[in-house]
Amino acid sequence: MFEELIKKEFKDLVRDPRIWIPFIISALILPVMGLVLSLGVRESISGAISPSSILISDLDRTELTAYLINSLRSGQVVSNVEVVNILSLDVLMQLTSGLNFDVIILFEKGLTEAVNLGVRPNITVVDVIKSTSFIPSLKSTIIISTINDLLGDYILRRHGVNVTSYFIKSPTNAITLTYITTRNQTLPGNPAVFTQLSMTSFILPIALMIITIGVLQMAATSTAIENEEKTLEVLLTLPIPRFKILLGKLLGSFAVALIGSSLNIVGFILYIYIFSIGMPSTIGGATEFTQTLLLIQPESLIYLAVSLILTSLAMATLGVAIGVLSSDVRIATTASGPISMLIIIPSYYVMFTDISRLDPVAKSVLYAIPFTQPMIMSKELILSNPDYLTPVWLLTSLTFSLILILLTSRILAFEKLVRAQKAFSRFRRVK
Questions:
Q1: Residue 340: which of 225, 211, 154 has the closest Cα?
Q2: No. of H helices and E strands in the chain?
Q3: Could you tell me which residues come within 8 angstroms of residue 148 by beta carbon, excluding any fewer than 6 positions away?
Q4: 398 close to 313: Cβ distance less than 8 angstroms
Q5: What pLDDT digit, counting tens, does each position of 207-249 carry?
Q6: Is 284 left (phi over 0), alpha (psi -120 to 50) or beta?
Q7: 242-277 helix and 17-49 helix, angle to the nearest 10 degrees
């Protein structure tokens, strides 16, 4: 009879499109989101570093300023240079309203004299912003750096030094490496590696949080449907222990949630990979993403998978409890929202904190809470080895589910259930 309960719950959920369609849709949407985001970010980066159109007001009109202007024209960082002789910045900026200039530069009178006297001259640079973007404009920064290099070369030649300013500023070829102490492994020290590490440790907990909340809502909805259609009342009339009834519903819901979560995980992996291959190599692409994945130990991955399964079980248990207390789907949906928000509060803390700096007691508490356990494990997945107490924390998640389902089964006597549902409905109306 117990096996039949599990099969019945599983079949009912699979037949109900309200349950499985959201899992399929989210699994399909995630890769599309990765592609769209990568294209958008790539376009923003391309616009931020593309050659600039420059409007220059040359009030000094000397051989040095002519050299700077001609060098900018022949360089790769500038697409177009227009030169005027206008003193007012306001007038210069008004000129840009009808023209497609990215940067305005004002060479003030006395620039060459100041350079010859060894005094740093004033050069006014205005970044012309036409729209907002995910990546801030780098055009003025690139132009200023180029002008500084050109002025440095001019000063060195004037003093008879036969080297470039670039050589003086960067006289060595620095080979930077990153040593991961917890892995005893060395990686190339490209900043892209750190970008990938931070992205992975930040995005992975978000994905796990979304998946587990989906499990809670699915379990709450499916159980509330039985309440609404009065099939739960029929089950209560059967000579089956209440604990087994709930456990059967839980395992049936959990089986469907596990399949749906697997689809979401595949979709999330595709999301990360598609997003990574769409990134320019300067900020970390697929190669750096692969390097970070190689840091993950199989043991850590197994523990994370088990933790996610047990957390999904805990969320399903909580969802079943909410569904039992809800007389209809509307109440279950309304109640699961605030409860989900309460659950994810500690998860937000995990996402933004440095786990290695946590107090051992606080870290143990976060590991013991089923809803934050996979989040903190995912944060430590890349740079840390599994905690020796990890099996204990996994057992804690399983114990939570069993205790909650046992407590819920205690109110499954028909009279108690009706009273509990009325109380829960009043609580919802107050909220």
A1: 211
A2: 17, 6
A3: 165
A4: yes
A5: 666 777 777 777 787 777 777 777 766 776 777 777 777 777 7
A6: left
A7: 20
Choose among 202, 429, 214: nearest CA to 327: 429
Are 257 and 17 in contact by the 8 Å Cβ rule? The answer is no
Query: DSSP labels for 322-348?
Result: HHHH-SSHHHHHHHHHHHHHHHHHHHH
The Cα–Cα gap between 359 and 377 comes to 16
Phi and psi based region of residue 391 (left: phi greater than 0; alpha: psi -120 to 50; beta: remaining): alpha
Query: What is the CATH topology of the domain spanning 50-174?
Result: abc type-2 transporter like fold (3.40.1710)
Per DSSP, the three-state class of 47 is helix
Structure tokens, 12: 């009912």
Distance separating alpha carbons of residues 427 and 431, to the nearest angstrom: 6
Alpha carbons within 13 A on the beta-carbon side of 261: 28
Q: Where are the domains of the chain?
A: 2-43+182-430, 50-174
Between β-strands 52-58 and 78-84, what pairing exists: parallel, antiparallel or unpaired? parallel
Residues 72 and 143: their CA atoms lie apart, in Å, by 9
- CA geometry: angle 41, 44, 45, nearest 5 deg: 90
250-291: per-residue pLDDT in tens? 777 777 777 777 777 777 677 767 766 655 554 444 455 555
Q: What is the pTM of this model?
A: 0.61
Euclidean distance between CA atoms 195 and 62, whole angstroms? 45
Q: What is the identity of the amino acid at 15?
A: R
Rounded Cα distance between 250 and 92, Å, is 70
Place 19 in a pLDDT band, splitting at 50, 70 and 90: low
What is 124-170 written as a DSSP string? EEEE---S--SSPP-HHHHHHHHHHHHHHHHHHHHTT--S-HHHHH-
Rounded (5°) CA angle 363-391-182: 60
Structure token digits, residue 291: 């390097």
Encode 349-381: b = buried (16+ Cβ within 10 Å), e = exposed: ebbeeebeebeeeebeebbbbbbbbbbbbbbbb
Is 286 in a helix, a strand, or coil?
Answer: helix
**For residues 60, 64, 70 and 74, what is the CA-based torsion angle, rounded to 10 degrees?**
-140
Do 5 and 252 form a contact (C-beta atoms < 8 A)?
yes
Mean pLDDT of the chain: 76
